[in-house]
Amino acid sequence: MNKALAFFYAYLVATFAMLLIQAGYLTGEQFVKPLLVPLLAGLYITASSRRSGSMLLALLGCWAGDVLLMFAHHSELYFLLGLSSFLVGHIAFIRVYREERHAQTQGLLPTQKARFAFPVLLAGTGLLVILYPSLGDLRLPVIVYAGVLTLMALQALFRSGHTHRTSFGLTFAGALLFMLSDSLLALNKFGHGFQHAGFWIMLTYCGAVLLITLGITFHDPAVKLFRPK
User: Fold this and answer.
1) Nearest-CA neighbor of 116 among 150, 146, 158?
2) Global pTM value
3) Is 228 part of a structural domain of the chain?
């Protein structure tokens, strides 16, 4: 088994453990959650022959956000710091999507961009409008974060035609899952909490970061993931 595949399976195991923790069958979130993103970083580093600093920065932002949000119940400051870390991560993802593409190939036409972008923009702004009255003092940071998150998903969409279908599909699906995960988190925090919120937030988040990492990794023609040494 190559190293990248080992990191991939380790991430699946850690994700399963986190879901069991969120469902109440296990304890130890403080030990398992900080392992998730470093395992994906290990997968990316060992699988790809050209390692993007922007991608590593994006993963670092996600990792810092994961750790800081574990303490959000102690103080709102940790929530803001976690939000800021994920914001840095999304900005870095946007840069990654612009780097990891073939500029000379034909992408979406302007009319296609507008048509396909509309549902993403609607999803990004619709929930914000609904939750706006309950955001309180966090109104500005949440609006900024939602805007950057939506832009991140749009940049993933605009890679269509500039990379092969596997890389595009995985990355765009991951970006949409990230939007869904953060929407669930926002509903749970600012709207009416719902049953098993932590489980669904973690499931969509873990899926999102995995799919984005795989999508960017597979853009590299020299990728070694799933290939025996």
Assistant:
1) 158
2) 0.94
3) no
